[in-house]
Structures are given as structure tokens and as C-alpha cells.
Write a structure and sequence with these properties.
homodimer, 232 residues, alpha+beta, Arc Repressor Mutant, subunit A, Umud Fragment, subunit A, 2 domains, 4 helices, 11 strands, elongated, DNA-binding
DNA sequence: CTTGACACCGCACAGATGTTCTTGTATACT
DNA sequence: AGTATACAAGAACATCTGTGCGGTGTCAAG
């Protein structure tokens, strides 16, 4: 379908309005801006635009309309419009997707030092790590620790590496977790197995020995999601 | 001023609502979502948030509110919120900036298998990795390999890890490189030291022994820039 | 004890806003 | 001429939605 001048103007105005107000215009806003005296005419045209999928509308909701940038892009209408999203490599369906996010580096981890994930709120992280959305889910549960010393070497994690963890207190068998071992005053990264009331901790590097401990002495601080070593 | 739980919740909800609806919620929307029965209480808290400049509000306008991401970022509240604008690391002015890029995963690497970086053009990679611009420079020189088997365990690199390399034939002393060793028919990741006409290769994991080889037998395939282990 | 600030609740009101109905004009097709 | 369709206007209606005001309970200061 071909759009009328009026409809094009309406689209432009909506874009401009949203861009400068952060909320959509009302039907009457559109009317006065586009020189339409009647609300019904605006609605008429909006319905039309909605049929073309260029906008989305929510019935009976004030200002309940939004532009569909994907379709506008397809129709070649987006270029000159205000607030058009910049084209993104992986941005697909919805117009709101941001492709990466930040994860707080809550501090250092070393054997002999407990990590306080619960208390350490995300607000006072001393460093932030930018990660890619395609690789991780539920980013809000993630945090990162910088490894200090060679204490994790049996997990093939070296001094300076960054460990990304998903905060959780319980672990499934076989998962690699960050565990605090009471009696040894040590945090360590190992594969976790609960066997009766005993916990078996298997290093990632098979040339190191396994550990067997009473379950009460081991507390899980999070699941290891990723290890990143940055050398340059 | 410190925000109450309720106020934090309201902010979160607004972010989430806008993210999924493209228009802001009403006072009543916020109320029901945050367990507030009275509209006036919502208004009360919104006024408070507005005083803190965390949101902007337009009088008498339905859904006339928007989040101030700049201030939210400053307050350290933005990270975990839905639809937070990505912090623009690179630039803001022109619309062309991409904050991340893709690196080809050229194939697998295992001891005994030579890697052909020169021939393997970037066009027929079987996999692509999205990386962040802030962490790497000169992305066009980068390529990645997926490690197969435990042959790199002395470099604390495990089966399944991804190694990111910068393509270069020569290495400075001390750099971690991917090296092909003629006589052993093996690719390995080690710290590289040229000592006279001998090459010393030191594993990253100190519990493994060093190697000494004639320089002619060792050819550098690239410098190791990063090691990424994805566990979930 | 009194006072006042603070956070909260309910409710009524008015203005903001989408919807619907009726009417009118122009164009195209039969 | 007759009919269908796209486009437009205005007014009445319904409801959505922000605002204002009186009231409650708590808590610390005077």
C-alpha cells in the first residue's frame, strides 16, 4: 500500500515526539501537529498504519502506540526519522535489544579469602566487564572475580584470569562451582558432586587429585559460567 | 538521599514496562505492579524520585514520565535494569559506531594438527564469535580456535576452550604464542623465548616442564590474546 | 504527652484521551 | 444513475488517568 502524505507526516511526528518526550503522543497531539482537526481522522489513519504493521497500538490505552522500526526500516522510511535505532549486527526482532551488558567485577578471589557475594551489591563494583548477550543469559545474576595467585591452577585458572559466576547457593552434580571450604579457609573452583553427606570436588585439570569433604564444610558461592584470560 | 525498596522497585518496573511496551506505565500500572493500593502513594514516591532527578515527569500528562538514564547510571542503578542504554564506550556523535565485532573461529586446534591461518580466509569460518571492542584492538588480525583434547593442559587451556589469537609470525620474548613444532607434529600454546638459536618454550602452568628446541623447528602461528572458557 | 515529619491508604473529582456515530466529499467502477 | 471505497470532520460518549484532600499508623524530637 502507498502511504498518504498525511500518514507519512504522522509517522514522522510520532518519531519526533517520542524522541523528545520519551513517551508517545496522544491522538490529539498528532491531530494538532499534522493539521487534523478531528480525532477520528487521526484514528482512521492510525488504524491504517497499524494494518501496515508500521505501528503497534494497544486498545483503550492512552498513548498506547509505538513505532515498529523493523518494518519502517524495511519500508525505507526510517532513515530520515528522529530517534531511529542504529542498525545492529545481531539485533533481530524487537527494537529494544541491546547486544551487550555489563557485569560487575566484585573483587579478587584467592585461596584463603572468603568472597562475599551476598553483601557485595552490584553498586560498588570496582570494575565492570562488558560481555556479549549472545553468550550469556540472565545477566543480572552474573558477577565476575579476578583471580589472584596460583591457587586455582588445578582448575586451569591462572593468576589474573577473570572468572564469571552465576550467583547460586546450590549446585547440580558435575557443575563447576566456586566453593568456600570452611576448614581450609579457601575458595576454590572445582566440579561439584554431592554424594550422600559428602562432597566430592574434582579439579578441572585431571592431573590434580580429587577432594572429599563433609557437606557441611562446603558452601557454594556460585556456578562458574566462564573463564576469561586476557593476555594483551 | 537513599531510596526505599519501593522506590527501587518502581524504577525497575518502569524500566521493564517501557522496555516491553515502548510507552511508560500509568500510576495505576505502577501501583498494582509494586503492590501499592493507592494511586496517591505512587504519586508520592514518583515525586520523590523526580526530586532526585532519577525520573522526569510531565504534569497532567498521562504516562508522562521517563527515566533519566544518565542520572541512574551515576547512581549505579542502571546496570541491572531492563532496557538500559548501553554505555557508549567509543563515540556518541556519528551513528555508525559498532561497539563489538565478530571474530572467525577458524576451526579446531589439537596437538598433532597444523593450523593454516594463512590459507584459511575469514570467509569460510564455521563459527563466529562476538567480542567487545573495548577489550581488543585491531580486530581484523584476530582469529579464534577451539581447542580439542587435553594437549594444551600445560597452558591451562582445556578441551573445548576457545583461544583467540592475533596473527603474527614473530613473537617477542615472553609472549604466549601458538607455535608449531616440526619434529613433534604438534601445535602448542607456550610462552616464547628466543635464546641464541634456541627457542625456550615455557608452559603457563609452572608444574609442567619447559622445552628447549632449535629455532628452525619452531614456527609461530600467532600470539595468544585471550582464552575463553564457556561452561554453560 | 504532644508535635511533626514520614510513609501510606482510600476516595472522589476533573481533565485527558481513545472510541463511536453521523455526516459529507471526491473518485472509480458498473 | 447507482454503488463502493477512500478520506475527512465534528460531536457525544466512555473510560482512562493524574491530582487533591482527609485520614491512619509509626517514630523520634521537644
Amino acid at each position: 500500500m502507498k502511504l498518504s502524505d498525511r500518514q507519512r507526516k504522522i509517522l514522522d511526528f510520532i518519531a519526533e515526539f517520542v524522541d523528545s518526550n520519551n513517551y508517545p503522543p496522544t491522538i490529539r497531539d498528532i491531530g494538532t501537529a499534522c493539521g487534523i482537526s478531528s480525532t477520528s481522522v487521526v484514528k482512521y489513519n492510525l488504524t491504517k498504519l497499524e494494518r501496515e504493521q508500521l505501528i503497534k497500538r494497544d486498545k483503550d490505552v492512552s498513548r498506547g502506540l509505538s513505532l515498529d522500526w523493523t518494518r519502517l526500516q524495511e519500508a525505507g522510511l526510517a532513515q530520515h526519522m528522529a530517534g531511529a535505532p542504529r542498525p545492529d549486527v545481531s539485533d533481530t526482532s524487537n527494537g529494544s535489544a541491546f547486544n551487550f551488558f555489563q557485569v560487575p567485577v566484585l573483587g579478587h578471589i584467592a585461596a584463603g579469602e572468603p568472597i562475599q557475594v551476598e553483601t557485595a551489591d552490584h553498586n560498588n563494583a570496582d570494575e565492570w566487564l562488558e560481555l556479549n548477550e549472545t553468550l550469556y543469559r540472565n545477566p543480572s545474576e552474573l558477577y565476575a572475580l579476578r583471580v589472584q595467585g596460583d591457587s586455582m591452577i588445578d582448575a586451569s585458572v591462572l593468576d589474573g584470569d577473570i572468572v564469571i559466576l552465576r550467583h547460586q547457593e546450590r549446585a547440580e552434580n558435575g557443575e563447576m562451582v566456586a566453593a568456600w571450604i570452611d576448614h581450609q579457609n579457601e575458595t576454590t573452583l572445582k566440579h561439584f558432586f554431592l554424594e550422600g553427606d559428602q562432597v566430592r570436588l574434582r579439579p578441572a585439570n585431571p592431573s590434580y587429585p580429587e577432594m572429599f569433604l563433609p557437606a557441611a564444610e562446603v558452601s557454594v558461592k556460585g556456578k562458574v559460567v566462564s573463564v576469561i584470560r586476557q593476555l594483551e
